Amino acid sequence: MRVIILMGMLFSISLSMAQKVTVLDKTTFDPIEFVQIGSKGAQHVAITNAKGEADVSAFKGLNDIIFKLYGYEPKEVNYETLKANDFKIELTASVFMMNEVVISANKWSQISSDVPYKVSSLSPKDIALQNPQTAADLLGTSGDVFIQKSQQGGGSPMIRGFATNRLLYTIDGVRMNTAIFRGGNIQNVISLDPLAMENAEVLFGSSSTIYGSDAIGGVMSFQTLKPQFSKDDQPYVKGKAMMRYSSANQENTGHFDVNVGWQKWAIVTSVSANKYGDLRQGNHGPDDYLKSYNVQRIDSVDVVVNQEDELLQSPSAYNQVNLMQKVRFAPNEKWDIEYGFHYSETSAYGRYDRHLEVKGDEPKYAEWGYGPQKWMMNQLSISNFSDNFLYDQMSIKLAHQDFVESRIDRKFNNDIRRNREENVVAYSANADFSKRIGKNNNLFYGLEYILNDVNSTGIQENIVTGDVTASASRYPQSQWQSFGAYINDEHKLTDRFTLQAGLRYTHYMLNAEFDNSFYAFPFQEAKLNNGALTGGIGGVYSINEKTVLRFNASTAFRSPNVDDIGKVFDSEPGAVVIPNPDLSAEYAYNFDLGITKVVGNVLKLDLTGYYTLLENAIVRRDYQLNGADSILYDGTLSQVQALQNAAVADVYGIQAGVEINLSKGFMLTSKFNYQMGEEEMDDGSVSPSRHAAPWFGITRLKYNYRKLSLEVNAQYQGERAHEDLSVSEQGKSDIYALDENGNTYSPSWYTVNLKAMYQFHDNFTVSGGLENITDQRYRPYSSGLSGAGRNFVLSLIANF
């Protein structure tokens, strides 16, 4: 009996010595991880686990127990109040955050109030509610990035009047741009899986000091799921499974990810599979966007067949699969090692805008599509935390990427099918360092090496006889290399003023060998061996706790790549672009000024103005080949053109944002973007820039209560009149609407959308929405594909 009493006493003592508190989100009731619990009266600091739990026995009897976590309002209670509330406490999410954590500005975690650049972030909660089908759609939900689409299997971002190879993509800190990123629209961003994202950031403006070539208009930084360790002896297991259906393209998506973590090892596995049918456009809008026919091969003849549903954009269907596997190992507090494997593959898919082209009264093409787009990346990341003379933190990233893409086309009633395939193998090595010098100075510096091997092939097949012969490739066999070194210093001059300045030198080399079997080029090879020096200076001044002023002046460059130097392609009917081995880098000079102001707990305003000047711009101009200004290309006498350093361009505009706390769970937010761009022409005249989109934005009314999130939003774009279109766009009657004078223009448009998410069980959440409620037929500027008509979206998520 004494033994039983003694055991009971020990059990009671152990309970009192290990009293757990549970911290919950006041709105969602979800447990909050990483909450810091401290007190002036105790040296001990506790951190909540994934269940929101922490041991607060050390705080017994204290009157100033403080609960803190970035993104939440701090809360102070005494121990007796905590006990009276059954050791449960609720934290309120901050309505307006002036100090978000961002990593895109210098590759390290940094408080946004110390960053002179404008940065737009998308959190996991944002991504979950918006439910984007692709990574391009994910960027579009930010309200700060304009997305152009030539086909459903695509999405080409436009940022501050720049696009394609004048923007930079990074995935887990690794450069994704390759030596064949072109000036026309590119679709590589769809290789990334939005369902495997931890967060995404867009850094606006010239950023070559940190990122090197291509970072002229901005940087899109994607961070995928990171393996998480267990904080105790038990394995930490967390994951989700999702199924989604969308009516406008008969989408069927399945996704699964799981994290298993131990104290020193952790793994993450993610799998997504998507199946998209032809995209249906809206019922109310310009008839110019309708295509009521398809081309079918019947009895060895191409035949134009009427389409039953003229709202269906065919061919635009495709499938995609994404895989990701990560392994993380941290032997101690100083080392963190992670290996990541990524793989993405699409099916073949039609380039819809090419199927809109006609020649006389017949379609120009019977076939025009992309072969499977494949991307694979192996990455090894090694981080070290050490207080030594050289650095406090070191990050080494080694990456190998493999890109495969192809183009397949055949003219209407032509038996010859052309297939050109490109394979780029990219290697990169980055070493980045961070060192704190004194209390007020942070130094960031690093080295980078990039190598791209480009292999391009071309064949043509007679679809009647089956004969296959070699044909001209799209690119020469090439190798592109880049070496870079940078240093960036952040100095806190006063409590209110932080100054940043940096320099980078990049040396780039290109070797290309041309096959003159198909074209009589007056050269057999092209070589580049040159360097670029870029830099920037910027500052952040906190006028007070609620008002922050940012300014930044920086330079950027883009070195000529293989696509610039060596591509042969038909840019438009009757014109052919040929290689030009005499290109040099283009340079950008960027200035921007921004202010963020919070008024009470009710209003947050954000306004940024910018101006970018691009010199030595690489643009397409008329050219000559062996003294001739026209050559016979693909059976058509075509004007010879080439990319040349022949222009000056500039872009200016504003980015504005407003957030209004309407209380009782309601929030009104709006983003608005306005930009204008001009480009110098051959004759000295000026043309509007092709990639400066019309004004656009998104306005949202949000409501959050407990497990329910609701949003009604409107997305919109302004009109671009014929005279305001780029000269290169004015003749594209196949993708633009026609005004009352028969001239091309891009009409204004809007969509009204409803989003909802409800957690009806601890492990289950239903998410859905009704998009384009009024069934508008609209086509985003410069796109060849119309947006989705009225679209019902439903997804079921199981969390474990």
UniProtKB/TrEMBL annotation:
Membrane recorded as keyword: yes
Sequence ranges assigned to domain TonB-dependent receptor-like beta-barrel in this UniProt record: 318-773
GO CC annotation: cell outer membrane
GO biological process, one term: siderophore transmembrane transport
Domain TonB-dependent receptor plug: 113-219
Membrane-related topology note: Multi-pass membrane protein
Compartments it resides in: Cell outer membrane
GO MF: siderophore uptake transmembrane transporter activity
Keywords: Cell outer membrane, Membrane, Receptor, Signal, TonB box, Transmembrane, Transmembrane beta strand, Transport
Signal peptide: 1-18
Family (UniProt): Belongs to the TonB-dependent receptor family.
Designated name of the protein: TonB-dependent receptor
